[in-house]
Design a protein that fits this description.
Elements: H1 9-60, H2 89-93, E1 95-96, E2 99-109, E3 112-122, E4 132-135, E5 142-144, E6 154-155
Antiparallel strand pairs: 1-2, 2-3, 3-4, 4-5, 5-6
């Protein structure tokens, strides 16, 4: 009697079910890791903007910038106060890693801005991020789970 080599239908079904169980466990963890990475990138962007603003203020002696783009790279030539080359193009454009960034300069005194507010909001809430972030010249990064963060929200640890 000839015995055929190969796997039985039962063996194949068992292997497929094991793979499905592993996938069911791994996929949610992957999405949580992606959210955490996006949020970490947003916090890092807040720190980068704070550092860039203080560098701009110290180097150019003109107060804070009027726009986020002013901190970005020039289209050509060396850095100037109009394009300081202190942050990358993506951040200067206002979007990175599933977050949208907004920048508002305030406190105009003698043609110099004395303050700013920088916000990082998830592009698609609960899909690209769950927390909203805020920072200003205090350097404290604040967070909110329910909507855009502000100066009275809790700080990021």
């Amino acid at each position: 009697m000839n015995r055929q080599k190969g796997y039985s239908l039962i063996e194949l079904l068992i292997v497929v079910s094991v793979i499905l169980i592993i996938a069911a466990i791994a996929v949610p963890n992957f999405f949580r890791a992606r959210l955490a990475a996006n949020e970490a990138s947003a916090v890092s962007s807040c720190r980068t903007v704070n550092t860039a603003e203080f560098t701009f203020m110290a180097f150019y002696q003109q107060g804070y910038t009027s726009t986020l783009g002013q901190l970005g790279p020039p289209t050509s030539g060396p850095a100037t106060s109009a394009a300081a080359d202190l942050i990358d193009t993506g951040l200067a454009a206002g979007q990175r890693s599933g977050y949208l960034f907004s920048y508002t300069a305030s406190g105009l005194v003698d043609n110099r801005y004395t303050s700013y507010q920088f916000r990082a909001n998830p592009a698609i809430p609960y899909n690209t991020g769950t927390r909203y972030f805020f920072t200003d010249p205090s350097g404290v990064i604040r967070q909110n789970l329910g909507g855009p963060a502000g100066p009275s929200d809790s700080s990021v640890h």
